[in-house]
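Entry, Tuesday afternoon. Goal for today is a structural model of the target with zinc ion bound, before we commit to ordering more compound. Inputs were pasted exactly as handed over by J.K., no edits. I checked the ligand SMILES twice against the vendor sheet because last time a stereocentre got dropped in transcription.
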Amino acid sequence: MPFGFSLTWLHYVKAAPDIANPFSIVRVEEPGVLDPGAVPGRLARRLIGDWHLGLLDDNPHDSPQEANPSEWACPRLRAFYRRKTNASVEHDLIVIPTQSYDETNVPGGEAVLSCLCRSCRYHFVFKISAGSCGSLRDNPQHHFLLNGIEEFSPANVENDPAVKLYPLRCHALYTCSACTQTIEVEVTAPRLVPEWIHLISDEQRITQALNVAREEDPDRYANIGPEAVHRYVTTSLQTLNAYLKDVVESAPEEKRKRISSRNKTFMVQFGTSCDHIFHYLGFEFEPVEEAEEGRVEGFWLPPKLDVQEGKTPLKSDRAFIEDVRGEVQALLEESSPDSGDTVVRLISPIARASLEKALKATLGPGQGGKTAIKEEAADFRLLGAATDADDETLKWAFHRQVHTDPGHKEAYLSALNNLGLRRDVDFQVFCFAQQDQQVQTTNATSDDPVDKAYAHFNLDRTRSEPASFFINVYKNFREQSPAQKSAHRAALLQIGKDRNDNEILSEVYMTQMEHSEACTYLSVDPTWPLESIAVSAQSTIQVNGIRFHNS
Ligand SMILES: [Zn+2]
Ligand SMILES: [Zn+2]
């Protein structure tokens, strides 16, 4: 094949004129409640991925994400981080089942997913309202616009009971541009501040406490071997976890299990240096009157939680203890620095799967597009689509972005075209139709093709500049709006012919081009057999150096 033409290409050209209305490929609904103005959005699956990266807000027209890391990215929030195996940059979100439900499969049903990141221990609560983009069969995913985001500076959890139960740091609201579904995301800080975790698990402090206890009461600690010492020193978080378990699981009629401040384990692992933490957790101290002089002795009474039928309400005392317990378990799950043993394994649903289900963004078997390459990341980001988006999803993403942010249509078109390079012919047909439509609306002043060609570059036919001027303008246009490459080249061809200028024509002919540029520029009838096109092309342009980009 003389020019590396392929049958795919012919099919592509042939199919293009049949598409009378490119929008018929994807049905576009008018937005329900929102008048978005000029805002790009994100399809549900993309948004879920972005949340894991801490990108609650993301403007794809801004600088690359790597240059502008989010304040809510997991690595930035991590404190007291011991996990060695999970160096991921993403939040490792799990669902807290007692606080979560998903009734989105019931008409009008909502979902609340209360999640905890096992790495940074921040909490993410997702409240998803009822909503449907049709049946979601025609619309392959909700398209969410950020309605607003509020950030709150850290507050002192110890001083304000309301803040303590729910230390809100960020609130974001999203609405689907094609239906009325809304999502609220609330990010709350860890209930246990890092200094306390450090204090509780401070092995030096515990060793010292053990030494003091042994000195004061040698008989009580007489039979403690090295193993027991090691256990004292390394299991304080486990002990705390057991206390919290009792609080959460004790039945209302049960008497509260008091912890004696003289309890051997309590005394060594916590003692008086952790008093403020136990007070914060809602434990009450009952002193014993007949204590020896100079000693504070008594009992710690664990908090008594209200009976809970059904799901635990957010911001309640019970939710608070559950949250603390989740954090302690996440800490226990991290391998400890020396042993490498995992003490606890959290068995909770992975948030990503639950979010995908609630937002109907799950990929079925065999669904999903090709594996994306690194160079495509910016294009997926612009279109607000996940990098595993299939063709139909990308088309839908494009339509939604253009609908809510028409001012950046060129950019979206360019992204669509770039992604089309590695996709099949039907998708390229779609890109072509979009591009064609754009070109037609951009320049349609005179009927003379030569006038049109000049107008394409906003130039007048009477200009007398040298060839290099026109070539530079053309190169500029290619750079500014790569989606219209073929239109730019076709216009330059007209100008080159009009001026009978070899330098311009050589720019047209000698540079590499893609399939999508070929038809316009060769002026061939796409319905001709391949051989005729080749012959005609050769005789028309008499150039040997053309290279067609074979994708
Ligand atoms: Zn995290
Ligand atoms: Zn929707």
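The pocket of zinc ion (ligand 2) is lined by residues 131, 133, 142, 176, 178-179, 181 (CB under 6 Å).
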